[in-house]
Amino acid sequence: MKTALVRGVSSAIGSCELTHFTRQPIDVAKAERQHRAYVGALRDLGCRVHELPADPTLPDSVFVEDTAVLVDGVAVIARPGAASRRKEIDAIDAFLSLRLPVLRIESPGTLDGGDVLRVDRTLYVGTSGRTNAAGIVQLRAGLASYGYEVRAVRVSGCLHLKSAVTEVGDGLLLIQNEWVDADAFSDCTCIEVDPQESRAANALRVGAEIVYPAAYPRTAARLRDSGLRVRLVDVSELAKAEGAVTCCSLIWDAAAVCPS
Ligand code: CIR
Questions:
Q1: pTM
Q2: CATH topology of domain 2-256
Q3: CA separation for the pair 81, 62 (Å, rounded)
Q4: Catalytic residues
Q5: CA angle 149, 150, 152 (to 5 degrees)
């Protein structure tokens, strides 16, 4: 069974970090409704969901993906590149360390989970404005004995690697190749986002379905044309905070990490 960890929307989300976006007012109540619907979709798709309470002092804390990397048998607690986000890891660390072995990225390393794309036993890690070389070296060293290869990938023009590329099927990627070079993923097949939907590369695979923003119908059609089952969610308010669908959850196979 899949387990998902999520966290409620902070009432301070309007003061979130922004890198490539212009600040717009965020309707917190609407963001909360959208988040509830997103969590409902995860439940419908078979996830057992744990929800941590919202924290009014941590504007970006709904974006739990950035706080950890979960692979079979171990969690790596990240060290977010934005200093304003570092305290987010405390609650995540407390939750995960009760359930599975944890490693931690330490200073001077920085690593955002949004920069880590897992494809089978390879972890592609974006060298973004949030993840540095020391963070990647630590991730590589920490996970080598678990059988993971860590490959650094240059990413530019967007926040995280997973803003530019996500996995939508085994070895099948959805990619915005203006922000990342598709040659880095030569073992995979790539579906490009529709040229009119530049921010459309972030899709969340849950089992056999793809949870996907309703804002990108042209790219959603491309996914369906590739034989994928797509479940649309409206995340327009969360998107104003430069977040998308992968960033609002940490999902893992409970059997793989918690045999008991
Ligand atoms: C940030 O800039 O850190 C947040 N406003 C958005 C984080 C989105 N995270 C993600 O895509 N993994």
A1: 0.96
A2: L-arginine/glycine Amidinotransferase; Chain A (3.75.10)
A3: 16
A4: 160, 247
A5: 145
User: For every one of its 260 residues, what pLDDT tens digit does the chain have, with 9 covering 90 and above?
Assistant: 899 999 999 999 999 999 999 999 999 999 999 999 999 999 999 999 999 999 999 999 999 999 999 998 899 999 999 999 999 999 999 999 999 999 999 999 999 999 999 999 999 999 999 999 999 999 999 999 999 999 999 999 999 999 999 999 999 999 999 999 999 999 999 999 999 999 999 999 999 999 999 999 999 999 999 999 999 999 999 999 999 999 999 999 876 544 33
Q: How is the chain split into domains, by residue range?
A: 2-256
Answer yes or no: is the C-beta of 82 below 6 A from any ligand 1 atom: yes
Q: Which residues are paired to 149 by β-bridges?
A: 122
CB contact burial 109-132 (16+ within 10 A = b; e otherwise): bbbbbbbbbebeeebbbbbbbbbb
The dihedral over CA atoms of 198, 202, 207, 210, expressed in degrees to the nearest 10, equals -40
CA torsion sign for 13, 97, 211, 120 is positive
Please work out whether the CB of residue 81 comes within 6 Å of at least one atom of ligand 1.
Answer: no
Answer whether 32 contacts ligand 1 (Cβ < 6 A): no
Evaluate whether 28 touches 54 at the Cβ level (below 8 Å).
no
Q: Whose CA is nearest to atom 7 of ligand 1?
A: 243
Asked if 81 and 110 count as a contact pair (C-beta separation under 8 A), the reply is yes
- Best residue among 18, 117, 155, 242 to mutate for probing ligand 1's pocket (most ligand atoms within 8 Å of CB) is 242
